[in-house]
Design brief:
The structure is a homodimer of 348-residue chains. Chain A is built from 13 helices and twelve strands. Chain A has 348 residues and is an alpha/beta fold. In chain A, helix 1 packs across helix 3. The radius of gyration of chain A is 26 Å and the shape is elongated. Chain A has three domains: 45 residues, no CATH class; 140 residues, 3-Layer(aba) Sandwich (Rossmann fold); 129 residues, Response regulator (Rossmann fold). In chain A, the strands form three sheets. The first copy, chain A, has a six-stranded parallel beta sheet, sandwiched between helices. In chain A, strands 7-6-8-9 form a four-stranded parallel beta sheet, sandwiched between helices. In chain A, strands 10-12 form a two-stranded antiparallel sheet. In chain A, 45% of the residues lie in helices and 14% in strands. At the A-B interface, helix 4, helix 5, strand 2, helix 6 and helix 11 of A face helix 4, helix 5, strand 2, helix 6 and helix 11 of B.
């Protein structure tokens, strides 16, 4: 660790004023010989001079800091999304603060205040589950932020703020259509959390699409697995005993738990039962490589969120009108994509 | 989104000077009536006034920003470590910038420069694999940083910088001892990356401890699985065909791949072969809940790194001596812990 090189150090080493050094290093016009200019740049380089972003921020009113508030960075889907968003920000010279709300509304509120004090240039906000149930408080907290906010992945349909996410309803429909086309009629569903709009949308899309094809899910086979491996594992027996020929799990982890139990009972997928998961996140670990699943196109989601953010930052800088965007939020619902692997079979 | 409330706004609303507002809100002594003081605080609250951290940073020389440079936030181990470090920082009022080096030395260098420009107060640095092989460049880059750096998880034994990590050599020893105590002599090993000190240490500890007990690993059973699920899966046949009674996988993902292949061949763990993994990260997903594995105590690792950081930040603030710590780095090698589950059996 060394002491930070300042403009003063460069000035001393080159025998000119601090102002001259500043003007030269910022490429502003100043009456100084080409030789001196070269010397100043060379010395600054030798001394490892790095411009002070904090001082610059006070002048430009831009911190070049963005923040991402995530419910839980250990969740595979959010970890992957965080990585893609960080990539996008980094390519534009922004640093990304990442913080965990642990799905708690209180922590979320505190972090929003902390971000506001930091003068971040923008916030990617994945709302906590609590705020997803009732967004009233979050809405007023977001309205008080002085930087642009892009709701990410959750609360996308509410349209009170810029938002981008995957169309979970459509994802559920895709799963239903594949089962219908493969001739299945005796179908089970293991859904995710009760308190989460995205989970409900996946299931609603699935149920509605089956309904269009005059198929209903037996209430006994309408299961709940809390998005956990154990949830899939524990509900498997009921489904396997029922004679259902197909099951839709609202995430890949539950599908993995389900197939673990099926294997233990010496049942095969898809010979004995067809299986569709959701998220396509286990493939990156090499796990569950035979699972048909719904992909949310995380890189594209990160790109959409980032594009909205950059638009708003430019708009704010141009000062054309005061904060017009809350009245006209941009929304992007991305199409999920079916990843066909070997876990669904066609029956007559 | 609203316009940011400034000291000026509060001054206007209360009919006093900006200086008075500043003094009152920062609890500095000033000659102003108790009534006026209350009014200023109330108005500031009503107007949602938040102190400007950027302006404050220029005065205090502290940004209250820390950074974590991570090879890949999608890696389960690093995601978990990042979460724990963020928790520690957040409890102290710091925000944490997280950036991915993608294990590349070039990206790493660029990010170090970006962090330096941002006046971060400290850096948790998990070196890239490239820098792990040869740390010469990284060493001089770190020496040029004007903030404290704590090497995290990697390069801990080199002792040129504060560092905390888990003792991987000891972890390998633990695995060997368990097999020896259970009576195994025909033993296989699937190791991780060739280019990574931690992976090599795990294997070295394992091999050395077996050696003390006069057991050597057949070169045919000395396998390499690149830390990937596929790596464990693909080397499984060779090991299962050899008649080995036990296998140590240098991470849990490879152990999972290995057991997948064993299941496909209708072989059971531990009846047909005993298995030990490393990391204890799959358990949080509910996967591989029967796997005996070595836990690196991630929360404790985060606490150690954070404690070193806070010490250095205090030391720097007290200005007792210029940057003494590079000459006397603190190092912490945490003891790994064996998590005994059902995947190892005792043989006569």
């Amino acid at each position: 660790m060394s002491n930070r090189t300042t403009l003063r150090d460069v000035a001393k080493a080159t025998g000119v004023s601090i102002t001259t050094v500043s003007l030269v290093l910022n490429n502003h016009p100043t009456r100084v010989s080409e030789e001196k200019r070269e010397l100043i740049k060379r010395k600054a380089n030798e001394l490892n001079y790095v411009p002070n972003q904090t001082a610059r921020s006070l002048v430009t009113k831009r911190s070049m800091l963005l923040a991402l508030l995530v419910p839980d960075i250990e969740n595979l889907f959010f970890a992957s999304l965080a990585k893609e968003i960080e990539d996008e920000c980094s390519a534009d010279g922004y640093s990304l603060i990442i913080a965990n709300s642990n799905d708690s509304k209180n922590t979320e509120r505190q972090l929003l205040q902390q971000f506001e004090a930091r003068n971040i240039d923008g916030l990617f906000l994945i709302p906590s589950s609590e705020s997803t149930k009732d967004s009233t408080d979050l809405r007023s907290e977001v309205a008080q932020m002085s930087c642009p906010v892009v709701l990410t992945d959750r609360l996308v349909r509410e349209q009170w703020c810029d938002a981008a996410g995957s169309d979970n309803y459509q994802g559920g429909q895709l799963a239903a259509r594949l089962f219908v086309e493969a001739g299945h009629t005796h179908i089970a569903c293991i859904s995710g959390r009760h308190d989460n709009g995205n989970a409900e949308a996946r299931k609603a899309g699935f149920v509605d699409e089956l309904g269009k094809n005059h198929i209903t899910i037996d209430p006994q086979l309408d299961c709940y697995g809390a998005y956990r491996f154990d949830g899939g594992y524990q509900t498997a027996d009921r489904i396997l005993d029922s004679g259902a020929t197909a099951v839709f799990c609202c995430n890949d982890l539950m599908a993995l738990g389900f197939s673990k139990r099926a294997e233990e009972r010496n049942l095969s997928i898809p010979e004995d039962i067809s299986l569709i998961g959701y998220d396509n996140v286990l493939n990156s670990l090499g796990i569950a490589s035979n699972l048909t699943t719904i992909d949310q196109d995380i890189p594209q989601l990160a790109k959409s969120c980032h594009a909205y953010m950059m638009n708003r930052i430019k708009q704010k800088a141009s000062k054309l009108s005061p904060a017009p965007w809350l009245n006209d939020p941009q929304t992007s619902l991305l199409k999920p994509k079916m990843i066909i692997k070997g876990s669904v079979r066609t029956i007559k």
